[in-house]
Amino acid sequence: QVQLVESGGGLVQAGGSLRLSCTASGRTLSRYAMGWFRQGPGKAREFVASITWRSSDTFYADALKGRFTISRDNAKNEVYLQMNSLKPEDTAVYYCAATSRPLRVGISYSYEYELWGQGTQVTVSS
Predict the structure, then answer these.
(1) What is the largest distance, in Å, between two alpha-carbon atoms of the chain?
(2) C-beta of residue 99 within 8 angstroms of C-beta of residue 37
(3) Closest C-alpha to 36, from 84, 90, 109, 96
(4) Are 3 and 9 contacting, i.e. CB atoms less than 8 angstroms apart?
(5) Which one of 1, 51, 71, 86 has the fewest beta carbons within 10 angstroms of its own beta carbon?
(6) Cα distances (angstroms) measured from residue 18 to each of 33, 36, 42
(7) What pLDDT score does 27 carry?
(8) Given this model, what pLDDT does residue 85 score?
(9) How do strand 10-13 and strand 120-125 relate by DSSP bridges?
């Protein structure tokens, strides 16, 4: 059974940066497309970014393009989310997820992913 574990969250001031990591154990992620989602206080879970298993394609929520970057290292079984110019509205629990389905072009939906991590809290102070 694959387990996904996120790390790298924390408290950061507005304008700062964080790099989230998602590490898989139990099975290689190399055949999975990966995604990052987030859920802010009182909000529904929303798509952040996704990446194909060969890293040939990446997709982002429109509002996050240019500030967030998704990447992966299949040799390390890890996926990353670099977040720059953070804003208070980026405050959320961030989840990584894996899907064995062909990755949808553009926005992904949570139901398309079968594996999820437990989440890591990101808090951006103003």
Answers:
(1) 40
(2) no
(3) 96
(4) no
(5) 1
(6) 22, 14, 23
(7) 81
(8) 98
(9) parallel
Q: How many CB atoms lie within 10 A of CB 59?
A: 20
Q: How far is CA 15 from CA 6, 11, 32, in A?
A: 22, 12, 32
| Tokens read off for 71 | 């990447």
- The pLDDT tens digits of the residues spanning 73-87 come to 999 999 999 999 999
Whose structure tokens read 């964080």? 18
Q: How far apart are CA 45 and CA 23, in angstroms?
A: 21
CA 62 → CA 5, 23, 47, 87, distances in Å? 26, 26, 10, 15
CB 96 within 8 A of CB 114: no
Paired with 125 in beta bridges are 13
